Each structure stands twice: as structure tokens, then as C-alpha cells.
Amino acid sequence: MAWQGLATEFLQVPAVTRTYTAACVLTTAAVVSREPPWGSAAVLELLSPFQLYFNPHLVFRKFQVWRLITNFLFFGPLGFSFFFNMLFVFRYCRMLEEGSFRGRTADFVFMFLFGGVLMTLLGLLGSLFFLGQALTAMLVYVWSRRSPGVRVNFFGLLTFQAPFLPWALMGFSMLLGNSILVDLLGIAVGHVYYFLEDVFPNQPGGKRLLLTPSFLKLLLDAPAEDPNYLPLPEEQPGPLQR
Predict the structure, then answer these.
(1) How confident is the model at residue 224 (pLDDT cuts 50, 70, 90)?
(2) 3-state secondary structure of 45
(3) Is 136 exposed, middle or buried (0-12, 13-18, 19+ CB in 10 A)?
């Protein structure tokens, strides 16, 4: 019964948050390594991180194109750092999808695509192999800039305004031994998206530069109601006709 209740609750989570979180958990859980019995040196693995990391040579020369996606899904071995990242992915991805992106699934997916492409290009300069943490930082940054008046309680230790959250997250990530470069990349890409989407269009002479492709809207968004549509007589409210 508990599993049924958990499954029901999870299915009520918005689609993009549910899909990305599940993909991260399943990918990380599939990277199973353990020493077999009898002191053998062989290692049993369902998946290896070497099959997932971003390598431009393997992507463009060996056509291992799945690496463009899987490097955003692996968050290291199961442990405190993994659950810490999953907490922030789930919480702030859901808050964005249910908040500023409510009813705009295509725009939300396009934000993921824009961020992923830009992170991949910039990651080449820093030789970064796994970018899931950077994507998390981007989600947190965009949410924090769109919620400037919200006060955040950081694990009961600190309370501050939302715009400080990405920096607090970066500091805590550094304490866990993670690279600060990955968080800085996510913050930088999040700022580029926020500027192009929220700041520049509201400037004199500005306009929206990030336009979601029509095919994404067709696939993911509910069709808009035609304001000129006139319902049939039997669909109009009124007394029941015999």
C-alpha cells in the first residue's frame, strides 16, 4: 500500500520534473559496481561511468550520441552528494514547472535544451565530463531570480533571500568536494537564459530572442482555445431539453 501511495504521489508530479528525476535516479542506480566474492579482482557492472561521460571524440567520431544526454543524468555514486543533488533537482525543477512555466511545458523543455547545448559547448573549454550538477545550478538560479522576495531556509542553518541560494549551494557543494567550476558554469548559463528571457525583452528596443520552436508547442502544449469558437446549442448552458 505504501508503494502504491508513493507511486500515485509521484505520478502527480509535473511531467518534465518526473521524467528528468526518474532518468537521473535510474541512470545513477544502474552504475552498480561491487567486488565479487572470493577476493576476485574483477568488477561486476551494469553500466560504467565511462559509458556515460561526455567525450566529443566518441560522440562525433564514433557516433556515441547518447553521451550528449547521459552526462546530464549521472550524479556520481549513491551517497549523500547524490541525494543532495536529487533533492535540489526535484524541488526546484518542480517549483519552476508549477510556477513560472505552468501551462508552458514546451517553453520549459526548450529551456533545458538551450541550457544543455550551451553547457556542452562551454564544457568543452573546461574539459567537464558530467554536467548534471551544472544543470541543477541553472534551475536553481532561474528560480531564484524569478522569486527575489522569497526567503529560503537552507537546511535550518541559514535564512536568506532567494537570489543568494545558488551561491550558498555552490559553497555547500564545494564542502562536499565537488568542483566549483561546474556550479559556476550552471550559474553562468542560468544568467544568460534569465537575461535573454526576462531582462532584455523588457528593455527599450528589446525583444524575445529565445523562441520555442512550433513543433515543441504542438507536441507538448495543450491546444489553445479559439476565442471566436461558438459552442453547439446542445453544448451551451441552459435548461435541460427533452
Answers:
(1) low
(2) strand
(3) buried
Average pLDDT, the chain: 85
Quickly list DSSP for 60-109.
HTS--TTHHHHTTT---SSSHHHHHHHHHHHHHHHHHHHTTTTT-HHHHH
Residues 6+ apart with CB under 8 A from 56: 124
| Burial class of residue 121, CB neighbours in 10 A (0-12, 13-18, 19+) | exposed
Q: Residue 92 carries which side chain, given as an amino acid letter?
A: Y
Average pLDDT over residues 68-80: 90
Residues near 203 by Cβ (< 8 Å), separated by ≥ 6? none
**Residue partners of 84: CB distance under 8 A and separation at least 6:** 172, 176
pLDDT, one tens digit per residue, over 9-45 is 778 889 999 999 999 999 988 886 544 555 544 444 5
Q: Does pLDDT of 217 surpass 60?
A: yes
Residues sharing a CB contact under 8 Å with residue 138, sequence separation 6 or more, in sequence order:
115, 119, 186, 187, 189, 190, 193
Q: Is the dihedral of CA 13, 14, 17, 21 positive or negative?
A: positive
Specify the pLDDT at position 111: 97
Tell me which residue of 193, 143, 178 sits closest to 164, measured CA to CA: 143
Q: Give yes or no for a contact between 112 and 68, defined as CB atoms under 8 angstroms apart.
A: no
- Please tell me what DSSP assigns to residue 51: G
Query: Please, which residues have CB within 8 angstroms of residue 18's CB and are 6 or more apart in sequence?
Result: 10, 11
**Structure pTM?**
0.85
| Residue whose entry in the numeric block shows the C-alpha cell 565530463 | 129
